[in-house]
Amino acid sequence: MALGRAHSVAVTGVDGQLVEIEADVGQGLPSVHLVGLPDTTLQESRDRVRAAVANSGEKWPDGRVILALSPATLPKVGSVYDLALAAAVLDAGGSVPAQRLSGTVLLGELALDGRVRRVRGILPAVLTARKAGRSTVVVPECVLMEAGLVDGITILGAATLRELIDWLRGDGELHRPGSVLPPADRPGGDLSEVVGQNEARWALEVAAAGGHHLLLTGPPGIGKTMLAQRLPSLLPPLTETESLEVTAIHSVAGTLSGEHPLITVPPFVAPHHSTSVSAMVGGGTGSARPGAVSRAHRGVLFLDECAEISTKVLEALRTPLEEGEIRIARRDGVARYPARFQLILAANPCPCAPARDVDCICAPLARRRYLGKLSGPLMDRIDIWVQMYGQAAGAFAAQEAESSEVVRARVASARTAAVARWREYGWSTNAEVPGHVLRQRFRLPRESLAPVENALRHGRMSARGADRAIRVAWTMCDLRGGEIPVVQDVLQALNFRQRGAA
């Protein structure tokens, strides 16, 4: 009887857990048995691994091979374990020494000819290996740039199983990650390209400064989509921690660029209006994959033509908007993905969407029903509502508007003030501050709160809506460089909500 060991990582959501793989070669008819709750993909790895070992010039052990993956109660999903399975069998058969193998984590899928293919979730897997105290991680050569984003652990890349075997024997060297290329330019264009729409531009600046959610309504072709696409150009770059957090989500989703794996700017995600609940919040068969709300983490989720989106999809946004996290329940457990994003909604005022309200041919009931998909609880979570109108004659001849760079400087200054105020509590933007903190520790003067109390008294707003209006007022204060919101800041914040409701 011979026993071999190797290690890999199981990724659930953006969290990983170290998996020990044991290979036992014993007497009996030649066969391969996998135990440890493997899924169908992992069950099929028996044939892939055996063929890869044989085609790499190594001998597969004669006899019965038992491969055990532990913890045994943890479901194992995917092909990430192929490389570790092959190494464990070769260790058990005495083909490779165990010295280097004992402190190394192996990640990668094997082709039948022994090539090592890329798998999803490399970044969170490498982070897990570092946290577990492992010294070395071997990954597919094609994802070296992504794995190399993690410091404090040796990253090596293998193009084939043959290269790994030679390295384990001390007869060769594996590839090392090169320098990370500069990040790509910010997507979405410049704010100076938007003609007119001063009120909507100001609302976009306030939303960027405070991390607030925004609703834009108006006839088609008026600039709603253009404005939304330029919001990322106003946001500050991601911090190092935020970059790794966002990159890990996109690594699991399989959407990372090979040349620019590190995401340093806020992502912009715009799903089609026919998207499903699973595509929006995450899910799918097998392991739950991140949806649009998670891929937009630390960035912008833009829903164009939101009145055309299914009501179930819209209502599924309520939990991540409130908690900044999405939890996807499966038979074998719950996958958690962060989902703290800025929501931008855009909609036409009615189905026919004329350039002028007087030309509308919709029945009053159809007009009301069109935006009725946006339920009260969902609308209560939107901080800023803006109704956009057509441009007056001469708008195209007006002077060039402010660029994103100019507005971004004001946004950065306002965010710096917010960070200084909320740092000791763990928040970075005004939109993240709980309502009870605003009402107790940072209560506004009585004269500033008077408009909010009046709106509550007459039933024009809920308690949640009042909290959100106060958050917007704090952002107004930060943009003008004030210390505490005055009554004018509160009135402007209320005007943003009441105008959208009109």
From TrEMBL:
CDD domains recorded: AAA
AAA+ ATPase domain boundaries: 210-375
Domain of life, per lineage: Bacteria
GO MF annotation: an example: ATP binding
Pfam families for the chain: ChlI, Mg_chelatase, Mg_chelatase_C
SUPFAM superfamilies: P-loop containing nucleoside triphosphate hydrolases (SSF52540), Ribosomal protein S5 domain 2-like (SSF54211)
Family per record: Belongs to the Mg-chelatase subunits D/I family. ComM subfamily.
Name of this protein: Competence protein ComM
Species of provenance: Nocardia aurantia
